[in-house]
Fold this protein.
Amino acid sequence: MQVNLVDMFKNMGNVALGVVIVLLIMSIYSIGVMIERYYTFSQATKQSRKYAPEVARFLKQGKIKEAIDASHGNDVKHSHLAKVLVVGLQEWQYQQAIQRATAVNLADLKRGLSGLATIGATAPFVGLFGTTFGIINAFSGMALTGSGGIAAISAGIAEALITTAFGLFVAVPAVWAYNYLAGKVEGFNVEMDNSSSELLDYFIKKGA
C-alpha cells in the first residue's frame, strides 16, 4: 500500500491536525529565531572585529572622546564589544558600569535561545501525543467495526506516526541551532570580559 501524505493530512482527526498545527507554529518560530540570531551574531562578529583595533588605537593615543565617538553609530550598532566598552568609557565608575552593560548585552544576545531550547525539548512529546491519540483512535475504530488484522489499522497508525516524525523534524534543527548559538554567545561573553579587563588596565595605567 502506497502512503500518500496529502491524503493522510486531509483525513486527519481534529486532535492530530491540532498537533500538526502546533508543531508547524513551533517550527516557524524556530526558523525565525535561527535566521534573526544568525544575522545578529554575524553582524556582531564583523563589526566588533573592525571596532576593536580602531578603539584600541584611540586609547593608545589617549583620545577618549574619539574612542567614545567610534563606539556609536550604525557601523557598530550590533557590536557586543562597543555596547560594553562605551559605557566604561563614559562612566567614571567604569568597572561597575561595564559589568552592568555586559550583563544586559549578554541577556540580549541570549534572546530567543530559551524558546529554541523549549521547542527542542518538547516538540517530540507534542508529536508523541498526537501519535498516541491516533493509535487509540485506530484501535477504537477496529473495535467498533469488528474488523481485525493489521490491514484494518495500518492506515490509522501510519497517520498517527506522522505527528511523531514531524515532532522530530521540528526538534532536531532547534536543538542543533540552540547548541551552535549558545556556543557563539559564550564566545562573545569571553570577548566582552577580555575587552573589559583591557579597558580597566588602561584606566589604571592612566590613573583615571
Summary: DSSP finds seven helices and no strands in the chain. Helices lie at 5-10, 14-60, 64-70, 80-90, 94-109, 113-145, 150-206. The chain has a mean pLDDT of 80. Residues 150-206 form the longest helix (57 residues).
